[in-house]
Amino acid sequence: MAKEKDKKSSYGAEQISVLEGLEPVRRRPGMYIGTTGPDGLHHLVWEIFDNSRDEAMGGFCDTIEVVMLPDNQIRIADNGRGVPVDIHKKTKVSALETVMTTLHAGGKFGGEGYKVSSGLHGVGASVVNALSIYCRAEVHRDGGKYAQEYSRGKKKSAVKKIGVSKLHGTIIVFEPDKEIFGDIKFDWGTIANHLRQQAYLVKGLRISIIDARGQEALLPLGSKASKYEDVFYFRELGLELPSVTYYFEGGLVSLVKYHNQFQKPIQENIFYVEKELDGVGVEIALQYVDDIVDRITPFANNIHTKEGGTHITGFKTALTRTLNTYCKKNEMMKESEGGFTGDDVLEGLTAVISVKLREIQFEGQTKAKLGSMEAQGAVATVFGDAFSAFLEENPDDAKSIINKSILALKARKAAKAAKDSILRKGALEGMTLPGKLADCQSKSAEESELFLVEGDSAGGSAKQGRDRRTQAILPLRGKILNVERARIDKMLASKEVRALVIAMGTSIGDTFDISKMRYHKIIIATDADVDGSHIRTLLLTLFYRYFREVIDAGYIYIAQPPLYKIKRGKEIHYAYNDEEKLKIVGKSSDVVEIQEAESPEPAEGEGESELETKNSNLKPTKFHIQRFKGLGEMNPEELWETTMDPNNRLLKKVNIEDAEEANKVFDILMGSEVPPRKSFIQSNAKLAEIDI
């Protein structure tokens, strides 16, 4: 008891940790940028860019330049007003230093700095500074040029005037700290896609992206990030660097056209409204196309709120109500058919919803979901009134939209009837599983795996070679239905799709429940040939269109079986590509020459060949190489050792890094329009790996 008392008495004020300045950011970076992986790394770019973009939203800036520099540095410059450099009354240091080194400091907390901004907590610039091994802020303002440098959030010196300037704007250069992020690799496509989206959202804003990585030879001798003289230094140098510039006068209408570039519109005129109500700016554009999925892209203060929020709730409520009212008023539907549901009016809809609020509330620092309640009412009122007027003024478009929604309503009822008759309740609960499914013994979804294999041959080997306790096998015969434009009733008429849905246990459509998922790993294991790739694409299309939550949860994987089995004496190696094969066969120091035998005698199975190595000191040694064309060619032991054993196998987790781009690619590859698919294949043919 005495010892226990001593422990309690030792707990005093000196045990309370106080983290000063930006130390909390470095200690817990995930709290501020979500993750220290690739998403968090790129989030640094968004935080600095958003400050420049907010200047543009306020009408103070029309050009932003983002440069990817050597040494993992990013340079973001704008021609805005420039961060103030005078002494801040409260902090007694320059306002620039305050913004860069103090959390919750900036022009977004009251006052007239910004009427609208994307910053929730005012942590953007200071967080980037804290997580950077090097950071530099340069300001062109009031005829002067000012600068300050930092490392890991701490200033190296006071803000200094380093010259005169006729320009105005802010330049931020930062280099992420490897201690925080480990492997630092900025992705051109990720940055370009995000900034293109932002250019659509701010009319008249010109955004340039320049890739100067690995181009030190082209840069002026001795120039470093701290030596670049002008706000838009790189653009004015006229160097031949990879670059792209985005500028859209059409705003959201242009973005809707971009989303629908591979679709067939059923609505001639794109609906558009922009209006402010009760301090909430509402801007919406939409168009219906001949498709069965919806594409709704929401923004709040130009932040992509991918998880939706109150603005989406208001939009969907007003859309359903407006179309039901118009339909009833014009007697376009029988009373027995009832009214439209939210799902009915969303089918085939492409919409972009953007709201702007002065005091904005997100759920979490990563700003994925809007929580401001005033947005719901403003969007519902502004959109409802404008869309009602649009339907009255465009009767042909209104008729096409209503007919599209009626078709969706009928399909919904037909799908429900088909689902109820085909998938009995007992089957959905796992009581009547498909006969072809070789289920696992475990009832724990967390440790259970479902292998989707191609054909009975691979299925037989997989069933024999698996770990029966945790691994289930579902053989798929032939190519499954292309579900890109198929509704649920047609899908469930396919035996292969129906077997997969029952095996998963989640049901489908409006009764989908991810908590009933029977396996937390669904592994697509198809052959390494054209047919196998096609089947894999069809399966991914099915999951993408009807089981997005399963992908988002991280449950979908693609198996990576080896291409070669290499034997030399009693040694056995597996190579997953040609590079690995060469490392095993031809990269050792004692190999002088490798030749393929003129008349190979396969040692084990068809497709096997011998390679002979010659060395001046050693007797010739023969390599036996077997090229696997499919999983069915492997015996159970080989399949287990290479593809199914958790200790040895290679799996690729399926992620949707950019849902917009994934959506577009699925539309192109799996849709009904031939010209876009032909163009895509021609453009990307050089990337294909040809297996002869």
Automatic annotation (TrEMBL):
Chemical reaction(s) catalysed: ATP-dependent breakage, passage and rejoining of double-stranded DNA
Region ranges (Disordered): 595-616
Domain of life: Bacteria
Acidic residues composition bias: residue spans: 595-610
Pfam families per UniProt: DNA_gyraseB (PF00204), DNA_gyraseB_C (PF00986), HATPase_c (PF02518), Toprim (PF01751)
Toprim domain location: 448-562
Cellular component annotations (GO), alphabetically ordered: chromosome
Keyword annotations: ATP-binding, DNA-binding, Isomerase, Magnesium, Metal-binding, Nucleotide-binding, Topoisomerase
Alphabetical list of SMART domains matching this protein: HATPase_c, TOP2c
NCBIfam families reported for this sequence: gyrB, PRK05644.1
Protein name as annotated: DNA topoisomerase (ATP-hydrolyzing)
